[in-house]
Design brief:
CATH topology of the domain at 159-332 and 392-412: D-Maltodextrin-Binding Protein, domain 2
Strand content: 15-25%
Strand order of the largest sheet: 2-1-20-19-18-13-16-17
Number of strands: 20
Structural class: alpha/beta
Radius of gyration: 23 Å
CATH superfamily of the domain at 159-332 and 392-412: Periplasmic binding protein-like II
Number of helices: 22
CATH class of the domain at 159-332 and 392-412: Alpha Beta
Amino acid sequence: MYQPPQQRRRRSYAPFIVAIILAGGLIVGLKTLFGGGGGSGSSDGGGGGGTAAKRACDDSGITLNVTASSEKAELLRKMANSYNGHQVNGKCVDVLVTSKASGGAMTALARGWDTRQDGPKPDVWTPASNGWISLLKQRAEGSDRGQLVGVDLPTIAKSPLAIAMPKPMAQAMGWPGKKIGWSDILELADDPKGWARYGHPEWGDFRLGKTNPNFSTSGLNATIGAYFAATGLSGDLSEKDVSDKKTQDFVRGVERSIVHYGDISLTFLSNLQHADDEGTAMSYISAVAIEEKSIWDYNQGNPTGDPATLGKHDKPKIPLVAIYPKEGTLFSDHPYAILSWTTGDKKAAAEDFLKYLQSGDEQAEFAKYAFRSYDGTPGDLITAANGLNPKEPAKTISVPTPNVLDKILTSWAGLRKPANVLMVIDTSGSMGAPVEGTGKSKLELAKQAAINSLGQFGPNDQVALWTFSLKQDGDKDYRELVASSKNNRAELKARLDGLIPGGGTGLYDTSLAAYKYVLGHQTSDAINAVVFLTDGKNEDQNSISLDNLLPDLRKETGQDTVRMFTIAYGSDADLDVLKQISQSTDAAAYDSRKAGSIDQVFTAVISNF
């Protein structure tokens, strides 16, 4: 069992349903580079972090694989590195931590973990919320995998969901003296006067950021919270409550204020940091639903939450503050689930590592990064000076039963803000190159990933398709294959399936044309976006330059924009350029330089809609 070392080691602490299944619901080995200047970092979908695992044992030791949600994965990895070398049952223990989206990990476990696409098979799973455990139990029920998680679910840290808002906006709404909740958000979102309602017409419309509840715990908890707010309940939410027209109208109203969704909250926080750097923080989003701990991270200039990057960026000019919804909120309780196949020495090691994480010294380390303790006690950082309140939340919400959670996610799919998306696929000659170990070319894998992603779009989403290389249509480097429509999924599949590679890469002209096309066909009640995949660099010598392209992609402060979500596909993709393009449109750039990961990356990208 865990015995504290006699002398404390010195350490370096620099800090649901159908759509996911389409591509395995995974975002494996994926590092997502966001447009907000936060740099690269592990994401809630990420498989890698900034801290390498430090093994202390030889091959005769015990290796314990822990899969953790991103907001704590790097911190857990540092703790594991300090723990490694402990003896359990006379054997040396190494704990290896992998970061994975809570929703993606849940789906992977439910359908049977596949190490080829899911990463190392976990002995311990620690998602951000117990809600994912409930969903896993239901997904795996009746399967030949049996009960994957036991009844006893200890926690290692806690953090409540909050509505994070730029401080001046929160003050305009009456914070901190006034209790604010989802009902106030809905009233503001519905008001055609926007922020003029509170005397600030210069702030424009109310814009909410919320992650996709099929992937992200903050998105799941925010969605649950909205349903509870609509009913006035704090527990015992029923399927009938979820289906009630009044409830659905309330949730639909909240969703209509969404800027865009996403697989992780890092998208919003990194973009917000970039906007703050440029003095336009309040024109990007008015609020974002995130964990209390992530508010502290942002206010330290560290939106990734990675301890290794803490202190490497200035604190924001306009900090965020936490609004704890007056209707009640949920805690991310970070359960520690020892999976059923973890037995013998591995189980003993898992139990020992849990005791280590719950020990006083390690709980103090969690508190240094604004987590509350595993029993919910707020630490020294949960203060008004940091925009947080140790006395909140005054009212908490119980996690609904698994069948009600399922109903919420199904209901949300029909109520979420619709999307107006142009998919732009590179068909240059280099896309015909084979991908080692797959027996397929880059284009074949990309086509299949795009086809798989079509099922993530809802019946109210409009989707169009372009391809590009060089001079595909006269002097144009791009060609429209499928016009935008709600009823074109069969045509999209057929045209994607028929793509063939050839020619060079006309990246810049195509980027601008795609942006202008969606801008000219945008609708005010939809998420207007471009999904742009390329495996190369601009090769059109007669095209617009990058220096001239980027200003044309930037919007005026307060205006709605077309967001360009870019995918750097394969090792030759110009990742830096794609990041600049996405950054200019307040979107995100995704790294799929490991070409075999494209299926998972496409799933993550489409989660923005």
